[in-house]
Design a protein that fits this description.
The chain is about 25% helix and about 35% strand. It is of the alpha+beta class and about 140 residues long. It has one domain: Hotdog Thioesterase (Thiol Ester Dehydrase, Chain A). The protein starts with a strand and ends in a 5-residue tail after the last helix.
Length: about 140
C-alpha cells in the first residue's frame, strides 16, 4: 500500500485555550496530506481545477486519540483507502513524533464539474491518474 507522509510543525495559532491543537486544524492537515499524496504519485490537483473540476468532501470521519501541542511536529500519513468510478476515500493517520496516534480519519470525495457541480469520473478527465489510484488503493472495489 502506498502511503504519503508530510510533516507539519505545530504553530501556536493552531492551539486553543487549553494549549492543545484545536480540533478543526486536523482537517486542514488532512487536506495538506491529500495534496502531498497527489504530488507524490505524480499529479497536480491545481491542474484539475484549471480544467474546471473540483473534488468536494462528501463525508468525513475523525477519531481523536491523543492531544497534540504547540512546538511538536505532526506527521500526516495519507493513502487511498478505496477508489471507484465516482468516489475516492482517503485514509489518514496523524502521528506524534514518537509514532503514537494523535488521530485517525477518512474522507470521502467525488470529482465534479466546477460550473454545474455534476459528478464526473476521474477516468474521463485523467485516465492515468484514475489508473494510479486504482493501483494504490488499499481496498479494491
Amino acid at each position: 500500500m502506498f502511503v504519503s507522509e508530510k510533516q507539519i510543525e505545530i504553530r501556536y495559532a493552531e492551539t486553543d485555550q487549553m494549549g492543545v491543537v484545536y480540533h478543526a486544524n486536523y482537517l486542514v492537515w488532512m487536506e495538506i496530506g491529500r495534496t502531498q499524496l497527489v504530488k507524490d504519485v505524480g499529479f497536480n490537483y491545481a491542474g484539475l481545477e484549471e480544467q474546471g473540476y473540483i473534488s468536494p468532501v462528501l463525508d468525513l470521519s475523525i477519531q481523536y486519540k491523543k492531544a497534540m501541542r504547540y512546538g511538536q511536529t505532526a506527521t500526516v500519513r495519507t493513502w487511498v483507502e478505496s477508489h471507484s468510478k465516482l468516489k475516492t476515500v482517503y485514509g489518514y493517520e496523524i502521528l506524534h513524533e514518537d509514532g503514537s496516534l494523535a488521530a485517525t480519519a477518512t474522507s470521502l470525495h467525488t470529482l465534479v464539474k466546477k460550473d454545474s457541480f455534476r459528478p464526473y469520473p476521474l477516468s474521463k478527465v485523467d485516465p492515468h491518474w484514475d489508473k494510479k489510484y486504482l493501483e494504490i488503493a488499499h481496498s479494491k472495489n
